[in-house]
Design goal:
The protein has 2 helices and no strands. The chain is mainly α and about 80 residues long.
């Protein structure tokens, strides 16, 4: 009877250790995730403050200058060559 009590206590200690270590592991992962999320948040906030990142998307196309028509340019060059 005495050995059964000792075995029960030992099993309780092992199960308690496993539960506590699992909870501590989850807490550590939660803390690491929170620190990573905070670092990303403050990094983005600092980038907006320093105007390294804009909230509005810039226009992708730049205004293009009107290129002369190739045929018109060729005609002009031929006229200049004749004169």
């Amino acid at each position: 009877m005495r050995w059964i009590k000792i075995a029960g206590i030992a099993a309780g200690v092992v199960i308690g250790y496993l539960v506590v270590s699992a909870v501590i592991g989850l807490v550590i992962y939660a803390v690491i995730g929170g620190v990573a999320a905070a670092a990303i948040y403050f990094g983005v906030k600092a980038a907006y403050r320093n105007k390294q990142v804009g909230r509005k998307r810039p226009d992708r196309e730049l205004p293009r200058q009107q290129a002369p028509d190739v045929d018109d340019e060729l005609t002009r060059l031929r006229r200049e060559m004749r004169s």
